[in-house]
Each structure stands twice: as C-alpha cells, then as structure tokens.
Amino acid sequence: MNRMFVLGGVFACASALAASSAQPADTVLVHGRIVTLDAKSTVVEVLAIRDGRIVAVGAFAKVKSLIAKETRVAQGRGKELEDDKTLTQLLPMGFGDSMLRFSGIGENVAWGVYNNDDPGEASREQLYRICQWATSRGLALNIHWHNDKSAGVVLDVFERVNREYPIAKLCWTLAHLEDASEPTLKRMKTLGVGWALQDAGYFEGESQLKEKGAEAMKRLPRINSALYIGVHVGAGTDAHRVASYNPWVALRWMLDGKTVGGAALRGPEETPIRENAQRMYTQGSAWFAFAEKERGSLEVGKLADLAVLSKDYFKVPAEEIGEIEAVMTVVGGRGVYEGVKR
Ligand SMILES: [Zn+2]
Asked: Which residues of the chain have pLDDT under 50?
C-alpha cells in the first residue's frame, strides 16, 4: 500500500539539521511519501521527531545518524506500518497550549450587524467600538459575513480602525463570504484581513445556484482570485454547527466544485490545484491562529503533527479524495489515533 504522510508541524532551517544530529530522534518515519509543503514543495522519504518537534526531514542517509537504539522507526512502505501500534501505545496522548489557544473574539460580536445587509448607524458604530477594543487588546477578530453586496459595511469599519491602529498583524478575518468579489478581496488584501473559506457550497450549492445562476456559480467561491490577489485564505468547514468537520470532503469540493447532490457548479478558473488546496488547509489556516511558525508544513523545528493517509491525496482521482481517512495520526510526536488496518 502506498502510504502518505502529510502536514502539520512548521519551520525549516538547514543548520538545525546539523545542530540536532548529536541527539537521537524519538521517532523516525521512513520510506513514506512525506509531503512537507515547504516553500519548495519538497517530498521526502524520512522525517525525524524529537520532543514533539520535527528535527530532520530528507533522505534516509541524511537522517540515519539520528537513529539510535531507543528510536522508534515507523515504516511507510509495505503492507503495514509495522511500528505504528507500538508508536501509539508508547506515546500517550497529551494536550498543551499548542492544542487549544484563545486568540481573539469573533463570529457574532454585534447583533446589529449579524446577517444584516443594511445595519443602521448605531450598529455600525457599535461594531467600530468593538473592533477598536480588540486592537487595544491585540486580539484577533473573526467576523461572520455572508454577502459581498454588504461587505463594505464591515470593511469600512476595518479601514476606519486601521487608520488609527494597523490591524494587519492581528489576523483579523472574514468568515464565509462565499461570493466575495475581486474588489472585496483586494480591500481585504490591503488591510491584511484573511478569508476563512468553507465548503458551505457543498451543501448549499443548489440553493446558491437558484439565487445567483449557473454563470455566476462557475466563479464561486473565487478561490484562485483570492490566492492571486494574495489574501490569507484558511480553509475549513464551519463544523460542527453547519457542516461535518471532514477536511477531505471539503478538499474534494474545492477541487471538483461538486455539491453533495452531485451538481458540478464551479468552473476551472476558480478551481485550485491540489497543492494550493492543501496549503490553504494547513499553512493558510495556521496564519489565523498566529501559528505559522509552529505548524502548517513538515519542516525542521515545527510541531510533529501529521497523518498517515489511507490514499495518496495527490494521486487518487478527485472523486476519491472525500473517502481518505487517517491510518495513523501523530500530534506533537505522539501517536493519538490508529485507524483500521486495510
Ligand atoms: Zn458564521
């Protein structure tokens, strides 16, 4: 079986490899297809973990000096991951600050502007005061917004606040906004405001089609435009209130634009390549949590968070992506889940 290791950890520097060679790794994953999503999109065969962090990635020869008697070695090629059971048992699950962190306020911070395309002056002022308060505390802010036609309401407020206090470093974001237009995305880029992109269209595509028409739906959401403009895009699902948490279903929808009912609505112009979809789900989302240096790619120094997948996301037909499962999940170098062997 072709195993594939993906995603998690974060930060690479070549000198770290040399500096860390003196101490053996706790765990080494070998003979996998390890998709690092580093800047060069490197795919490697070996990844070494110590104290919950990635200490080396690369070819086996480079990493073999890190393997000592006590190092657990998990093999990715062959019938099974021979050691994954041992790995899971030896490394009890643990949660730390990097697992759950309060980073700001959001979703609905002022009722007057919640799902309201034409809020009055008092509601806009209230939103402004809340945003101002968030800057005074250095807090992230995530605002629920549905329609592009009224996105100017919130962006006007953001721009007003930004004139007093630059917000770009606070990771402020708009969530949903499935019909975000290019002018809106450009304003977001200028402000440094991110876009929390979700797969609502997977469930609601048919009703969006009735409202907007087939021609418009071909270009929604404007995923490639957002990436081209340079907006921070983080992918997710809005679980659990609205959708399943399942990232693979959302990734399939990003790549084939098909609703749960099977209607293919999005055209090629706004359909991302697989790597970009994966990057939105990992590095893209890490930005929203001030965690780009900690997670989002498998590089030296980043957290050893990764999954061994049942199928190779980059190679299977798009329609099979939604069925991908974790065979094993490693968090902070610790095995926390082991799925059914197949
Ligand atoms: Zn919402």
From this structure: 1-3, 7-21, 78-96
